[in-house]
Amino acid sequence: MTLHTLNLRPRLDARDPVTVSLLGLAAYPDPQRLEQVCQRYASEDWALWGLEDEAGLLGLIGLRPLSPGQAEITHMAVQPGTQRRGMGRQLLALAAAQGWTDLSAETDAQAVDFYRACGFAITSLGERYPGTERFLCRWTQP
């Protein structure tokens, strides 16, 4: 699967059931928390973009603007059937292509290797939650 076979969907509808389902993979698995996240994307200046093909939505990336060119990756998810095929990298490339030159994300040990492999600098934030080490991942366009 290559980038040119996919379409960018800017400003996904945070109320669309397919979007909510995919966003649920990246948000804490609590219905109330997921509802709060959807409300933020619907009402604030957070950006929620997706990649789709003829079959539908394959992945999404949520960004919270911090300053011109700088954003925090708030959520990123890829449909389980399309994981490990470069979709996450393509979502990051699309964010960079939209003008975000400084991206950061806070994540856990499960996703830190993905960000490292994509060229992000990794800093441990320590055990921010009982038994869970968190990491700050940061990428600046060369």
Automatic annotation (TrEMBL):
PROSITE patterns per record: GNAT
MF terms (GO), sorted A to Z? acyltransferase activity, transferring groups other than amino-acyl groups
* N-acetyltransferase domain segment(s): 6-142
What are the entry keywords? Answer: Acyltransferase, Transferase
- Origin superkingdom: Bacteria
Record Pfam families:
Acetyltransf_7
Give a yes or no for keyword Protein biosynthesis in this entry: no
Spell out the Gene3D superfamilies in the cross-references.
Answer: 3.40.630.30
Q: What is this protein called?
A: N-acetyltransferase
Which species is this record about? Deinococcus radiophilus
